[in-house]
Design goal:
By secondary structure, the protein is α/β, with parallel strands linked by helices. It has three domains: about 200 residues, no CATH class; about 90 residues; about 240 residues, P-loop containing nucleotide triphosphate hydrolases (Rossmann fold, 3-Layer(aba) Sandwich), CATH 3.40.50.300. Strands 5-12-11-6-10-7-9-8 form an eight-stranded mixed beta sheet, with helices on both faces. α7 packs across α11 and α11 runs antiparallel to α12. The protein is rod-shaped. The two termini are about 35 Å apart. The N terminus and C terminus are likely disordered.
């Protein structure tokens, strides 16, 4: 006897086999992608649509750039020397210049010179979601010849509110817009600084960038001139004081020399040198006068240099590249945005598919059946096209070349392989839910056996749903309860509408209590006239006691709907069958959307 038919849940596995199951092969990845292709494709499509929506509702932005070179100032003392001097600017100095360029002082001057405070479009905030939809509506209306401005409002939502702003609010909004669109950064490790400005108008972008550079250079010149003026004023005041002190000291020394008087001589500070203090000598007076003279000459030289710098100031920065009108917008970047949207959608779709896969507790793959339940999958039947209940019950006869029919032939072959291990004369079909497709499978399997010349009988034991008896019998089966419950069983067997196989109706099964093991055991010898018997059993939801007769059959095929049958309910069904000592031939997956059914179909098509 085949161990697979009698074994229960897997108890122990080989370590090498466990390692192989844990390894994720390329085929597993490909199967995962095919299984969740709709989720991934939908996520990519949604992300690309969002990217297109952003591009369609975003105004192009132009960026103009100018460059300034900062030159280190060599001190006057070092300029007079003939030796080579190597001066560098540290990062703090360069960052200080960048901070000045970004300051509100520079920004306010540029805004005032260019009149940006009166430009409502310049300080307009970014568009809102509703504004973007309105813009898209205007574009669509204008394309079909309608007045989009009238249908969806004007294109400038801020025009009506700009007049309600105060001067201070208008000034701050303009300043914020200016700061947000201005970009100042150092070019590498050089002394060059790039000033870039973004604007929907390319002319405005170039004007603002150039104006910012010019105002910075002017501010440097004005700062140096102001510092020179302040220094000159201080030096001029100090020169007057030194001149007076020098003249006074010289006069005292000359008077002392003329008188040759070594008595008390008044000091330059006004004291008379009395009260016990020693009187200054001629040498001391001459040294004091000479000292004041040298100080006066030194300050006079500094004052002369300050006046020259004040009349001709030199800035430490100069413009090396002026901004020109940009020809193409810098944002949004269409190809990059679409590519990023597609990549983001792909990542989100794979993540969503993986999350759904982790949270999904339904029967989906033959690998899952082997690893979790120790059962082999006999095959996967694809989704049948909507022909109604009566059309799907004989699909193998109506469309013999379809993927469903080819997959069913593969299942028949798998049953034949199991038949070689043990004789399969009577098999049961069972499922966890009534909607798993067991009745459809039972009908088409019996029809396929009949088309091969096998005398086949179907026992409709699903007395709670009776799908087969309702749609395949030529007339409603109505008879007296006493007549149905007595007499030979052959009297109650009927030929189906398509005249392919015989069927024992569900009302006969119910009347004779054939769902009980004792009555079914008595019936089994009467069915020996048929080559193959298929019993459509009730689902697990009808009660586990209804499955007690499964142990009397040569084998049981468990039917599960792909992606719909819960794993817990399917496991309960398998445990119930093992508890009743039923021999499970294998599992059949219905309404499968994996790629295996296509493989089966191609193989049978080639064989034909």
């Amino acid at each position: 006897m085949d161990n697979r038919l009698t074994s229960g849940w897997p108890q122990a596995t080989d370590p090498h086999d466990a390692g192989e199951r844990e390894f994720i092969s390329f085929a597993d990845i490909w199967a995962f992608l095919k299984q969740y292709a709709r989720i991934i494709a939908g996520s990519v499509a949604a992300a690309v649509f969002c990217a297109w929506f952003y591009l369609a509702t975003t105004d192009p932005v132009y960026t103009a750039m100018t460059q300034i070179l900062i030159e280190p100032k060599i001190p006057q003392v070092l300029q007079q020397q003939q030796t080579e001097v190597n001066l560098t600017l540290d990062t703090a100095q360069v960052e200080s210049h960048i901070a000045v360029m970004r300051s509100e002082k520079i920004a306010s001057i540029v805004i005032k010179e260019l009149g940006l405070q009166d430009d409502a479009a310049f300080r307009a905030p970014p568009p809102t979601i509703l504004g973007r939809f309105a813009k898209l509506g205007r574009m669509a209306a204008n394309r079909i010849g309608l007045d989009g401005e009238w249908l969806f409002g004007g294109s400038s939502d801020q025009a009506g509110t700009s007049t309600q702003l105060t001067d201070f609010e208008r000034e701050r909004l303009t300043m914020w817009a200016f700061s947000d669109n201005l970009d100042v950064r150092r070019v590498g490790v050089s002394y060059a600084i790039a000033i870039a400005f973004q604007s929907p108008d390319p002319e405005t972008a170039a004007k603002v960038a150039n104006a910012t550079a010019d105002v910075f250079v002017r501010e440097q010149l004005e700062t140096k001139a102001a510092a020179a003026r302040e220094g000159g004023s201080w030096l001029e005041e100090r020169l007057n004081q030194l001149r007076a002190q020098m003249n006074e000291a010289t006069q005292i020394a000359q008077e002392f020399r003329a008188k040759h008087d070594y008595d008390v001589v008044p000091r330059p500070d006004g004291s008379d040198g009395s009260a016990g203090a020693s009187a200054p000598t001629l040498e001391e007076l001459e040294v004091t006068a000479d000292t004041y003279r040298k100080m006066y000459e030194s300050f006079l030289q500094a004052y002369t240099n300050s006046v020259s710098q004040q009349s001709y100031p030199v800035a430490d920065a100069r413009v090396i590249t002026e901004a020109t009108r940009p020809l193409v917008p810098s944002a949004p970047r269409r190809k990059l945005t679409l590519a990023f949207g597609a990549l983001a959608g792909l990542i989100f779709g794979v993540a969503a598919a993986f999350l759904r896969h982790m949270l999904d507790r339904t029967v989906r793959s033959p690998k899952q059946l082997r690893e979790e339940f120790g059962l082999e999958c006999l095959g996967e039947l694809p989704v049948l096209s909507g022909r109604g209940a009566s059309g799907t019950l004989d699909a193998v006869a109506l469309t013999p070349s379809s993927a469903y029919a080819n997959s069913l032939r593969h299942v028949k072959t798998a049953i034949g392989l199991a038949d070689s291990a043990r004789s399969l004369h009577c098999i049961g079909i069972v499922s966890a839910l009534p909607s798993d497709g067991k009745s459809t499978f039972a009908s088409n399997l019996a029809m396929l056996y009949s088309m091969c010349g096998t005398r086949t009988l179907v026992v409709d034991a699903d007395i709670f749903h009776s799908v087969l008896s309702r749609y395949l019998l030529p007339q409603p089966a109505t008879a007296a309860p006493g007549a149905v419950g007595s007499g030979p069983i052959e009297q109650h067997i009927m030929l189906t509408k398509n005249a392919t196989f015989d069927m024992l109706p569900s009302h006969v099964v119910d009347a004779r209590g054939l769902l009980g093991p004792r009555n079914m055991r008595i019936l089994m010898p009467e069915l020996q006239a048929y080559d193959f018997v298929v019993v459509d059993l009730p689902p697990l939801t009808s009660g586990t006691d209804r499955l007690a007769t499964a142990a009397l059959f040569d084998g049981v095929i468990v039917v599960a709907e792909w992606g719909r049958t819960p794993v817990d309910l399917f496991g309960e069904l398998v445990r119930s069958l093992h508890a009743s000592k039923a021999s499970i031939i294998g599992v059949l997956l219905t309404n499968a959307r994996s790629g295996s059914t296509a493989t089966y179909g191609r193989g049978f098509d080639n064989a034909r």
